[in-house]
Amino acid sequence: MAYSYPTVPAPHYGVPPEEALSRVEAFADLMTTRRTIRDFSDRPVPLELIDAAIRAAATAPSGANIQPWRFVVVTDPEIKHRLRVAAEAEEVEFYTRRATQEWLDALAPLGTDTDKPFLDIAPALIVVFEVHKGPSEPRPYYVKESVGIAVGFLLAALHQAGLATLTHTPSPMKFLSEVLDRPAEERAYVVIPVGYPAPEARVPDISKKSLEEVRILR
Q: Does the CA dihedral 44-167-162-158 come out positive or negative?
């Protein structure tokens, strides 16, 4: 294969075959303990942990290596509250006018509603933006796929640090760009509250599909 970039030797990770399965199983076991948290403590989170997780997220593959993402870390209480007020206004519209009854029925067992206190209480919010073509930005390719992979890396890294997360996707999300003063080429993708569960936090007793349900052999 011919590259226009200068090349370096491909990495060889040197995982002994006898350790490979145990490493993957340990990671899978860790990830099975990750849960979406809606009741956060206001206990502070060291910025170094969030930075390290974002550094991991930014290693994700992307179309043409354009890396079309921005991670805006919000800790200012005033800005968090402005985001909450705007998000709840959109959620009222969603629950009362936009969502179909089928959608509302699917959400009902999870207990979600228009009230989003976690946007105030969680010590940090990571707002992830897609970066599209702009005055100083090249045209990206496979933007949503690329950003989605990066967000997956981010969630896994934050969980590795013992931090709780929630993927919050109010729709539409234009208010995020306005409150956070982001340029026109950036479009909000997801809001991730980050912190520790409140002492009294509880989560629904649900399970994931089994390996046999999601893996198909041919």
A: negative
